[in-house]
Write a structure and sequence with these properties.
Elements lengths: L2 H12 L3 E4 L2 E3 L5 E3 L2 E4 L5 E5 L12 H8 L22
Antiparallel strand pairs: 1-4, 2-3, 4-5
Length: 92
Amino acid sequence: NTWNKILPARAYDNTLFVASCNMTGDNGEGTVFGGGSCIIDERGNILAEDYSGECVVSADLDPKNMDRIRSPGYETMRDLCFIDKVRWELFR
């Protein structure tokens, strides 16, 4: 399932919660949607998911950890400036 790869990565990259749902049934134009929903925390962990069709999922969300990660002094990959570390001599 593509969702299980892309959505956790976006949640982690952006330090945010992600709640996502898919259509279910036939759209009348030949496309059939399987349904499904998921909730992902700021670290990319799937908190709740159901891909059985039409469904509702829920999860308890705690913004304290997200606030801690976003606070000054907590360095993550997105905070690093790689351009400062480029070894330009390798590109000649």
